[in-house]
Amino acid sequence: MYPKAVDFLDPYVKKFKIRVSDGKSLFENKDSELISRVLKTGKQVIISSQVSPRNTKYFDSQQISWLYCVPKYPCDLEDLDFRNIKDFDGYSNHCPHFLAPLTAASLGANIIEVHITSDKSKDFIDNNVSFDYIELTKLVELVHLSEKIRK
Hints:
The protein is of the alpha/beta class. 27% of the residues lie in helices and 17% in strands. The chain has one domain (3-150): TIM Barrel (Alpha-Beta Barrel), CATH 3.20.20.70. The chain has four helices and seven strands; from the N terminus they run H-E-H-E-E-E-H-E-E-E-H. Helix 1 packs parallel to helix 2 and helix 3 (99-106) runs parallel beside helix 4. The protein is globular and about 40 Å long.
């Protein structure tokens, strides 16, 4: 979320994840200080966006993977619009129903990012958009079944 964090995290991470609000400059074909610093590491970068990255200068970058994301906590199924999912490498989920990531996977998303929690009854950050271990297990099972259909 801030440029100095890149230097701190760089020795410990293999990839960097950029949230929707921090990637907005890319849609004006401008790099922010954060984006520039992350790209200079040479590591893989994952950027969430609600808007298709097709018209950005980084659309075909081998260093960047794009995730479709509705930046609303939680988002409803009706907030999702997968018509341009093919412009993205994957999907970042903020919907409490696992039909959202399952649909994204069924439509060809190669990366599915979900939040998980150890206890839904706790007041953890992001818990309202998180799956517990049982739900995650079921989601993974269903994604694997959907892969058989996509072949």
